[in-house]
From TrEMBL:
Listed InterPro entries: TPR-like_helical_dom_sf, TPR_rpt
A Pfam family reported for this protein in Swiss-Prot or TrEMBL: ANAPC3
Each TPR repeat, start to end: 184-217
UniProt-listed PANTHER family: CELL DIVISION CYCLE 16,23,27, CELL DIVISION CYCLE PROTEIN 16 HOMOLOG
UniProt-listed GO biological process terms: anaphase-promoting complex-dependent catabolic process; cell division; positive regulation of mitotic metaphase/anaphase transition; protein ubiquitination
Name of protein: Anaphase control protein cut9
SMART domains the record matches: TPR
Length: 264
């Protein structure tokens, strides 16, 4: 349901419904999926819009998931290079990372400074450098434009946790639980709130729920393991981190998180 609301919100915000027939059809489809049939009929009118499925836009929609995956892989590669450079660089060069020229080129030359994927990469870079306040400013900017952009919520919630923003985390968790109970990141937010207020059992239960809804949700798996480390249950924590390392091979986070938890 959240994606239909998100699409409808975007169409209305950009005033696309009355400008393009394809957008009008999409708006009607979103309303039908929300069981708002009278509103859908008012948007679609009397004319049958099925001819739109033969348009060139149909081909564009087919290739969008492929390009999105390629874009995500490139962003992750920049982030990995950035984090390594930050870790081994001298204090005078740690604020300059290899990902910055690429992001700056995309932002200026290609006019993508407000692109959510570019902003996500920037927020992730700030978070990796422990610049949580700056990362939060970026995630807030993304959510101000599109509050249904669930890709940004993992970093957004993590920033709120690191900055101890308990009230904001509670409000976000409550709103998402009411409007998007089918979204795994909703329960990540709920679990993170409980983790912040030291209700470990409840946090573990909701992290587990997020994992069950999306078995490939790395952030939920990592934080599920954190709950055992927080209670000093080292054997179970090691087992949980080992599971994460096996599921997400190549990620440094399980080893890093375990090392960090043992030094706290």
């Amino acid at each position: 349901m959240g994606d239909y609301k998100r699409a409808q919100s975007y169409l209305r915000r950009r005033d696309l419904i009355h400008r393009k027939p394809s957008c009008r059809y999409l708006a009607g489809h979103c309303l039908v999926k929300q069981s708002r049939y009278d509103e859908a009929l008012a948007v679609l009118g009397e004319r049958n819009p099925t001819y739109l499925i033969k348009s060139k836009d149909a081909n564009k929609r087919k290739i969008q998931p492929i390009t999105a995956r390629q874009r995500t892989r490139r962003i992750r590669k920049w982030q990995t290079t950035s984090s390594v450079s930050t870790a081994v660089g001298s204090p005078s060069t740690r604020t300059v990372t290899p990902s910055q020229p690429a992001c700056d080129t995309l932002a200026t030359h290609y006019r993508l400074k407000d692109n959510p994927d570019i902003l996500l990469a920037r927020a992730d870079m700030f978070f990796t450098q422990c610049r949580f306040r700056q990362a939060l400013e970026v995630t807030n900017a993304v959510l101000a434009q599109d509050k249904y952009n669930f890709n940004i919520y993992s970093i957004h919630v993590a920033c709120l946790y690191e900055l101890k923003e308990k009230n904001q985390l509670f409000l976000i968790s409550h709103e998402l639980a009411e409007s998007h109970p089918e979204e795994p990141r909703t329960w990540l937010a709920v679990a993170t709130y409980y983790f912040l207020i030291d209700k470990i059992a409840e946090a573990r239960r909701y992290f587990s729920k997020a994992n069950m809804m999306d078995p490939h949700f790395a952030a939920a798996w990592i934080r599920f393991a954190h709950t055992f480390a927080a209670e000093g249950e080292h054997d179970q924590a090691i087992s949980a981190y080992s599971t994460v390392a096996r599921l997400f091979m190549g990620s440094h986070m399980p080893q890093f998180s375990w090392a960090r938890s043992t030094t706290l």
